[in-house]
Model the fold of this input.
Amino acid sequence: MKTISKLLMGAILLLTFYQCEKSDSTPTNIDVNLDGSIVAGPYIAGHTVATETVLRSIPEQYIDSARNMLHIAYQHTSHGTHVTFGLFGLKDYKTGDSELFGITNFNPTTNKLDFNDYAIGSYAEPGVDASDLSREETAFLQATRNFLDDPDNAHINVIMWSWCSISGHSVSDNYLAGMQTLIDEYGKDGSKIGTGVGQRARPVYFIFMTGHAEEGNNIGSGLPKNQADLIINFCNQNHQLCLDYYSIDTHDMNGTYWDDTDDNGASAKYGGNFYIDWQGSHTQGQHWYQNKTTDGDVIYGEHNDQHITANRKAYAMWWILARIVGWDGE
Done:
């Protein structure tokens, strides 16, 4: 009888151990192969997906998989902080968000999103400014190559660059052509993916971005709206995911489009600031949250006087990450 009891107790302990190990492991319930493939559209994370309602509708299994399987390198200057500050504030928003949207900066940790902020600029060629896409227009191309060719970054599988001002830049000839070159080299079946000398085993996803809105100066050749159209059309035609800053900046929480606004919600046509007004009429911790630095300090997105812009860009970013690991966006 003692022998049977010991065997039974051992079986119970073994089962308990197995269940604990299983619950702590990377989710395996999604049939996804991170080989650089992009699932069918939609591809554009604009104002229609940049809402908490959409965020909460994403099946949790895809959030779990993105949090455990994706390793992101992000390069930007001031306007690009909206994504970072939104992501690092979101984890402290509501009950359960600290686990669901857990995130770290340059510190890969089990069950947290590996987000590497300001990761690529230092890999620029000597004397070249690659702090964002708006500096030296083709600098991002070689800086990204140098970054991805470094064995220390072999784990990275998502790359994203942000604009400062997109106005006046050669979007088609430099940005879109450069991103396509990187995809051809480091994406699915890329020329630099393999096991030979100078190659890397892990393919990379490249997230596209439009530029931020500029008050009273959005529409016209080379201006933010027209530049955004070029990027969105390219992404739709070539099946690439895009974080649409311009759309989020120019649409209020009811979906109304204000073509004269900036990324803070200031619009003469609206007669004030639609994001500040919305924040003031809604409850912190219930409808919106405070953005935070990677160190946990409360902060607005750069050039903002409210938290909503960066909140929305974090929602859109998680939509993209869930899409990468296989969610259909519906």
Remarks:
- Confidence is low (pLDDT under 50) at residues 1-32.
- The chain is about 40% helix and 10% strand.
- The two ends are 57 Å apart (CA to CA).
- The longest helix spans residues 2-24.
